[in-house]
Each structure stands twice: as structure tokens, then as C-alpha cells.
Amino acid sequence: MTATIPPLPPALARHLPDPALEAILAHIRRAEEEFAATVAGTTSRGTPYTFGGVRREIAEGLYALVREIRPRRLVETGVCNGASTAVLLTALERNGEGQLDSLDFPEYTDTPYAPGTFWEGKLGAAVPRGKSPGWLVPTPLRRRWRLHLGRSQELLGDLLQGLGSIDFFLHDSEHSYQCQSFEYRLAWQYLRPGGVLASDDISWTPAFAEFAARVGRTPVHLHRKVAYLVK
Ligand SMILES: C[S@@+](CC[C@H](N)C(=O)[O-])C[C@H]1O[C@@H](n2cnc3c(N)ncnc32)[C@H](O)[C@@H]1O
Hints:
This protein has helices spanning 10-13, 19-38, 56-69, 83-95, 152-163, 177-190, 207-215, and strands at 73-77, 99-104, 145-149, 166-171, 191-199, 220-223, 226-230. The protein is of the alpha/beta class. Helix 2 runs antiparallel to helix 4 (83-95). The protein starts with 9 loop residues before the first helix and ends with a strand.
């Protein structure tokens, strides 16, 4: 059975299609092909390595959302090879404003890790050994980007405190109930009124639905597994 994907809200759909988005999606597709051609094997947890990037429909939703709300300060958790990062930065370039701070605790392929380094539910999203997180992000897009490496649980608080207030937050890092709940709660504190908290993989745990109820907001879906709340 296939789940129904709700259409994008009209205010967002009006930003699509867009040649800049199509160009970065083509670039991401080539990076994914390179990944597939050069990476094989599994993590030490036994899960096959994957590229792990956001799919086209999710990229379209995120791109249109950033085009519509024109955030100035954005924070993203979960970079890996850089698909969502490149999409967000492309939208910022088209907006002509905005700065993205991304946080990632990367897993590299063919690298031994002590048990417990990553949460037990993590699948195989990985960065090819020898490359850096976000390696696919084209150089011209990097002028609006800062990358912070480490666990969200350890870095996100200081990062948000340093920024003071943010307009947009995207969760796509550790999809455990604890980490999702932690990131939503913390990001919400720093989100300005009217700002947007978005999350990928909302169906992995009840954390997003619970958080939405707790703050009294109705989720707007960009995709069946991606939604956002407006503060
Ligand atoms: C699904 S991937 C992100 C995909 C990315 N958003 C994209 O579209 O290409 C999740 C990333 O979060 C990282 N990660 C896992 N646990 C983390 C944690 N506790 N804090 C920060 N990042 C984490 C993973 O290693 C991986 O790089």
C-alpha cells in the first residue's frame, strides 16, 4: 500500500518549478551516482552504506518553504554528503540573503568505530572515507554556510546560544526519540515568533507529534515524513 503524499500548500507550490533547484538536483544526482559507483559495504552495525540525501519531493518542499519565508538565520542538523544543505543554500542564493549553520556528527565509510559511537537505530547514511561532510556542496554556495562537527547533543546548545535567535530550523540528524525531542525543544526556544521548525523523518518516533501538541501547533506537511511548525 502506498501512503498518500499531500500536495504542497499553494503559497509554496508557486515557487516551483525553478531552474536553480533543477540544477542543484541534477548536481546531487551526479554526486549520488559517484557514491554508488565508489562505495560498497556495511557499517559495523551491519546496515548497508547509503547516500542518505533528501529525495526530490522533500527537496522541492524545503526549497519552496525557504523561498517563501525568506529566513535570515537557519540551522540544520544532519549534513552527511550535503543534499539538504545544498538545497537550502540554493534557496538562500535565490533569496539573496540568509546564513546557514549546519551541524553533523558524520559516519565515514570503511572506518572502525567503537560500539555505541552512533545510536543503535542509525541506518547506513555515510560520508565516503577521504571526503568531508557536505562534500557535494558547490563552492559558490559555501559563502552562506558554516559547518560544525560533533554530536547535536553536545554542540547544538552552544551554537544556538551564539546565534541568539533563528528564523528556521531543520532536524535531519539522529532520529532517536530522545534526540528529536531534545532538538525540537531547544530549537523552539531560540526560534523567533513566526519562525519555522521543520523536521525530516517525523514518523520514526512520536516525538514530532508530541512536540506539536505540546506547543499547540498544527503540523504542515511537505511530504508524508516531513512537516513543519510555525512558532
Ligand atoms: C540522514 S543523514 C542527513 C542527510 C542530509 N540531511 C541530506 O539530505 O543529505 C543524518 C546525518 O546525521 C548524522 N548524525 C547521526 N547522529 C548524530 C548526532 N547525534 N548529532 C549530529 N549528527 C548526527 C549522521 O552521521 C548523518 O551524517
